[in-house]
Amino acid sequence: MFDSLKSLFSSDAAEKPADETLSAQTATAALMVEAAMADGVFTQDEEARIRRLLASGFDLSAQEAGQELDRAKALADTAVDHHKFTRVVKNLPKDERLKVVEDLWCVILADDENTSEEDSLMRRLGPLLAITDRERGEARHRAQARQH
C-alpha cells in the first residue's frame, strides 16, 4: 500500500516540471479546447475556429496549428482543472490576456450557440486570468462583432 502511495506522489512530482515548461501558446490552445467542450459537444466549426485563431494569433502554419490543437486536445483530456493552463496565460501582459478571453468567446460562439455551461466556464476563467467581469463582457461583445 505504501509503495503505491509513494509511486502516486512521485508521479505527481514528475509531472510538475512539465507544467512549468507549458508554453503560453499550448496553454491558450488547451483553454480553447476546454471552451469548445464546455457544452459537451466539440463541433467541426469550433475545431476550425481554434485552428484559425492559433494560426493567426501565434503566426503558425495550418499544419503547425493542427499539431498544436492535437497537443491541446490531449492536455485537455487529461486535465483535472483549468489552473494548469490559466497559471501560464496569467503571466502574459494584460492586453494579450484580453485577446485570449476574446478568442475563447470566438470559440464558444463558433457553433452559433451559447449555453449556460459555456457562460459558467468564462465566469470561472475571468478571475483566474485576472480579467474583470466588465472586461470579460467587453471581450464577449468584440467576439460577437467578429462573428458577423
From TrEMBL:
It holds the Pfam family TerB. It comes from the Bacteria. SUPFAM superfamilies: TerB-like (SSF158682). Residues 26-141 form the Co-chaperone DjlA N-terminal domain. InterPro entries: DjlA_N, TerB-like. This is TerB family tellurite resistance protein.
